[in-house]
Amino acid sequence: MTDLNTPREAERAEVLDKARRAKDVAPTLATLPQPTKNQVLHAAADALLKRADEIIAANQRDLDEGRAQGLAESLLDRLALDQGRIEGIAGGLRQVAGLKDPVGEVLRGHVMDNGIQMKQVRVPLGVMGMVYEARPNVTVDAFGLALKSGNAALLRGSKTARHSNEKLVEILQDTLAAHELPREAVQLLPCETHDSVQDLITARGLVDVVIPRGSARLIEAVVTGATVPTIETGTGNCHFYIDRDAELDSAIAMLLNGKTRRVSVCNATETVLVDAALPEEAKQRIITALRGAGVTIHGDASKGFVPATDEDWGEEYLSMDIAYAEVGGVDGAIAHIAKWSSGHTDAIASQGALALRRFADHVDSAAVVLNASTAFTDGEQYGMGAEIGISTQKLHARGPMALPELTTTKWILEGTGQTRP
């Protein structure tokens, strides 16, 4: 007989109980009319702003505990909430409310020879599990996108953001209840041990999909340990290649924007590739610009850089560090990216049409950027509203995952009594 009094069994029981509750309410959420969903999203945005002081107080507890535990500054930045960030989170909900509802969209259809009318329509996935680290804004983004796409959300945030996530989910559930909708539309799972992740990702029959978002280690653990279908959101080892035909001032501006705008995000530039054919003066300008911005360069030690190893070429630094390599033109850049990129976002600066076309055709990443910063790989920048993550896999969804990516389809056939011979 299972002893629910042990912490481990109690934790597992809580995860499965919440999963069952989510499955129970999923049919209700799947058929919510668009005006109701939009009304709730706007009300949730209002509630977040009204209760911002409570959120900031809870977040401060997480920050204090994180500093006491020696969390890196990049993680603390991801964790931190202030009035401005809360306004941004609320704005994300309003943006989702203004987006087209994907549920019920007819993708294709026709009338069969026997007169049966058939159509393929978008429907919710059902119960959507999220495993993520640090960023409490993901809690609200996941709720907003799940609700608008008709899904129930099971959220397993990290222990470092526990107080923030608890307060945010409390506010979201209060909003749901005020609109006579089930609080179980969004639920926070226990985060004391990693075992609760395993409970979630193996809850076949209760959970329809799990989406991991965080470090390479977390994503790998979820993808390899799950028996529930997963959508992989990859790490962001993003490259920026400066071609011999680049406009150098513009290229440096794009590079610095991608690297220094916000180092803790997955679309930050982590490796700069420089065409070996560039004049030494141009290369030195690039190096000087990076150092002048406070960036530590990893690369060839003979050039005065921090010595680079294979770990550097595959690293998502999430800090004021960058790997630097000189390559043999656009083909050298393509080869380096093919070996080391995480398939998130890779960019080129060039005025050469042939180089741009070759880069676009041969770099196999979720986003290939021509003459722009890597920072634009973002659901909001794409006009999708808040995103659930950046998918680097090739099945079902690739790139920013917004509302359509949180649906599946079903076929509806309408006949008048036809039978098959």
Automatic annotation (TrEMBL):
Its main location: cytoplasm. GO terms for cellular component: cytoplasm. One of its GO terms (molecular function) is glutamate-5-semialdehyde dehydrogenase activity. Residues 7-292 form the Aldehyde dehydrogenase domain. Gene3D superfamilies: Aldehyde Dehydrogenase, Chain A, domain 1, Aldehyde Dehydrogenase, Chain A, domain 2. The keyword Heme does not apply. Pfam families: Aldedh. It is an enzyme of class 1 (oxidoreductase). GO terms for biological process: L-proline biosynthetic process. Its EC number is 1.2.1.41. Keywords: Amino-acid biosynthesis, Cytoplasm, NADP, Oxidoreductase, Proline biosynthesis. It is found in: Cytoplasm. Pathway: Amino-acid biosynthesis; L-proline biosynthesis; L-glutamate 5-semialdehyde from L-glutamate: step 2/2. It catalyses: L-glutamate 5-semialdehyde + phosphate + NADP(+) = L-glutamyl 5-phosphate + NADPH + H(+). InterPro entries: Ald_DH/histidinol_DH, Ald_DH_C, Ald_DH_N, Aldehyde_DH_dom, G-glutamylP_reductase_CS, Glu-5-SA_DH, GPR_dom. Belongs to the gamma-glutamyl phosphate reductase family. Catalyzes the NADPH-dependent reduction of L-glutamate 5-phosphate into L-glutamate 5-semialdehyde and phosphate. The product spontaneously undergoes cyclization to form 1-pyrroline-5-carboxylate. This is Gamma-glutamyl phosphate reductase. The lineage of its organism: Bacteria, Bacillati, Actinomycetota, Actinomycetes, Mycobacteriales.
